[in-house]
Write the structure tokens for this entry.
Amino acid sequence: MKLSNIQKLTILFFIIGLLIIVILYYNLNEPQKNIVNFISIFGTFLSFFGIIFAFLQLQNLKEINNNTNIEVKRSLNRVNEILSISELSKGIKTIQEIQTSIHNEKYELSLIRMKDLKYILIQTKHNPKLIELTNKNDYEDLIVDLSIDINNISDSLLKTKKTVNYLKVNSNLESLSTKISELENKLKFKENER
């Protein structure tokens, strides 16, 4: 069992205190060397030692509390990083689903999934771990392009607009997929640097 610095200090203080008691007792005049004076000196030391011991224990608790807070923050950061990677992976899978539904001409489904994707992109943009990577014009442009594609498909389904250039939609989705993959890999790479 390894002793902490506070425990070592407590033991050292107790041993030094006992030595001082012995020295004080043996330096008393012969008539004063009795059990009552020894108990008095020893009791005073124990009282003083109790106060010091309590103070050292409070310092130890403070250190443990600080270490616990640091570890809790590290754990929360780690969980947030894992959730960020998970959301990015979910975004890539959503893009694949959208492309498949467009290929199969299931435009209603693709519209629903595109709205889900837009939510993921906006959520990712506000993630503290990714803010430096998503706070750029190209990321904003991808969200705007997705919004335009959502509006065009929605209009097409409501018959207010006849045609949608699904090749352009697919191209926009590929750009998004590339960007999300880059973000995911950058986040994973940052994690592995630790």
